[in-house]
Design brief:
about 70 residues; mainly alpha; Methane Monooxygenase Hydroxylase, Chain G, domain 1; 3 helices; Glycogen synthesis protein GlgS
Length: about 70
């Protein structure tokens, strides 16, 4: 059961990272310190890696559109 709950938490964090990256790419300012404020160090590191990954994807997608 713990494994299933951990997997769901990872999926939720990944969804949030993608959503915040999309918001930032759309011109909204994202305060990562506020977003990750209650996360553990490991969670923050993972979240920021995923956020940066999705920011790069958003930049590439925008470049392809132009």
């Amino acid at each position: 059961m713990l494994m299933k709950r951990d997997l769901q938490a990872v999926k939720n964090f990944d969804f949030l990272a993608r959503s915040f990256a999309h918001m930032q790419a759309s011109g909204q300012q994202v305060n990562l310190q506020a977003v990750t404020g209650n996360m553990s160090h490991e969670q923050k590191m993972w979240f920021c890696e995923r956020f940066n990954h999705y920011c790069i994807e958003e930049s590439r997608a925008a470049a392809l559109e132009h």
